[in-house]
Amino acid sequence: MPVPSQYVGQARELAALLRQVQDPNATVEDTAEATLRMYHLISRIENELIPPDDWQVEDLTDTEFSEPDVDDIVENLQEQFDQQAEEQSGEEYESPEDVEYRGDFKPEMVQMLAKMRGQSSEGEEGTEEGAQGISQEEIEQMLRDSSEVDVGDDSEVTTVAANMMKEAGADAPQNPAGAGYNEIPHQDEDGGPLEPSEPRSYVYDEWDFRANDYRPRWCIVQERVGVAGETQFFAETLQQYSGLMEQIRRQFESVRPEMYRKVKRLPEGEDIDLDAGIEALIDIRSMVSPDERIYWRRNKDERDVAVVFLLDMSASTAEAVEEGARDADWNVPGDPVAYTAWLRARRGETARRPYKRIIDVEKESMVLLMTALEAIGDRYGVYGFSGFGRENVEFYVIKEVEEMLSDRVKRRLDKVAPLHATRMGPAIRHATSKLKAIDAKTKFMFVVSDGRPQDRGYSREGVEKEYAVQDTRMALIEARNSDINPFCLTVDRNGHDYLRSMAGDLGYEVLPDILELPRRLPQLYRKITV
């Protein structure tokens, strides 16, 4: 590479740092440390123009990394930090002027912005339709139709269109939620009924509370079989919770009914009830008319329960838990000098330190519950759900209701991971259809989530939260009308805010401490199903 002759040493150091990051085993922490060291190195180079004659071609492929003295780095950074603080003291920060478009230069973008401002691309006066004369939906359509503008998937199209509206000075709609059916902005508002085009795809209606009616064939649920992982997670969970598992097992076995229950004092039956026979004999000798119900027989008395568990697999379930116990170790300093020292002391420690996510606790709870259910013979299915728009509601099969608990099921549970958003209504409707196909006296549905229902084009922040809640509530009511008992359990501390409307009289619980989920979920199941 051509480098300034006077900075060959620095160039070789930078190349050596880059080679460390290019190592396949490099971690995020390695990148952070390399960035700090590069900044430390480059910050000491004068910002000057180097004449072409003062450059030379240097082979940087044979550079080797040598560990510098971290104390020198910390000391130099501290000196620079103190110097900058002295130079900038008393000066107020002034933000730079807004630029027209951030990103790669694309003429089509400029033309669109010009049209939105009511000007032509040559700067002449254009039509009277200014920024107010074109809607965000029209911009999104132009972006999708353009063969030269590449802005990625639908979510990125929406983001770019919103930014262009802002750049052009168009105000976002200010209609409050509930102001009227036609006045509330809604993504996919102009969409129509859908048709499933892939195998194991199912289409469902969606409830629009503003119109007090269903949107027909509005959501497509794509059913997928969970990816196979390892059985190690299942086994390690049972070992980790061995004491709790034993308690749960005993509790569940106590509710398991006998296959045959002896019914006594019957006028006819399989055999004579000895106690009743003795009493009848005493009555006869006492010259009293005896009770003729001196027989017993065995009546078959089976527990006939089918249940479905729906696990929230939205992106928010990737949030780490147990943070409170780790604040002392994980309180990252903001000061760059202190951060360097902190990072060096913990280099490599983060990669080895295990941590739990919300979805990991959900999975652990299911391991305990599935093991307990095997003891009482209830039929159960376990499914995960996530959404990305109304055409991409994913329904992951971990265990079908009639499927046996096998290593294959355990491997599927291992790979359950956070995905997209929480489009809850269609998932509940699909689970309802599965339970309706099961012949059982009593049917239950447990929805386990970490937050409110929300998805692209389904529940926009600050505008249509109520839409998602009401659609989910209607899906739960549909389940109840199909003789299915739904119950919602959330680990969201603010769950009462929306669950009162969403579940209400259908049954729900807010669990503030997610770490109690492995203990609480089996307790709830036993209480509700008995």
Topology:
Blueprint: E1 2-4, H1 8-22, H2 28-42, E2 55-57, H3 70-88, H4 107-116, H5 136-145, H6 154-167, E3 201-208, E4 213-225, H7 232-240, H8 242-255, E5 260-266, E6 271-272, H9 274-285, E7 295-300, E8 305-312, H10 327-330, H11 336-345, H12 349-352, H13 358-376, E9 379-387, E10 393-399, H14 407-414, H15 424-436, E11 442-449, H16 465-481, E12 484-490, H17 496-502, E13 508-510, H18 517-529
Parallel strand pairs: 4-10, 8-9, 8-11, 11-12, 12-13
Antiparallel strand pairs: 1-2, 3-4, 5-7, 6-7, 9-10
Describe this structure in words.
By secondary structure, the protein is α/β, with parallel strands linked by helices. It folds into four domains: 1-86 and 322-355, no CATH class; 107-167, no CATH class; 225-252 and 305-321 and 356-529, von Willebrand factor, type A domain (Rossmann fold); 260-300, no CATH class. The chain has helices spanning 8-22, 28-42, 70-88, 107-116, 136-145, 154-167, 232-240, 242-255, 274-285, 327-330, 336-345, 349-352, 358-376, 407-414, 424-436, 465-481, 496-502, 517-529; strands at 2-4, 55-57, 201-208, 213-225, 260-266, 271-272, 295-300, 305-312, 379-387, 393-399, 442-449, 484-490, 508-510. Residues 101-105, 119-132, 171-189, 323-332 and 347-353 have low confidence and may be disordered.
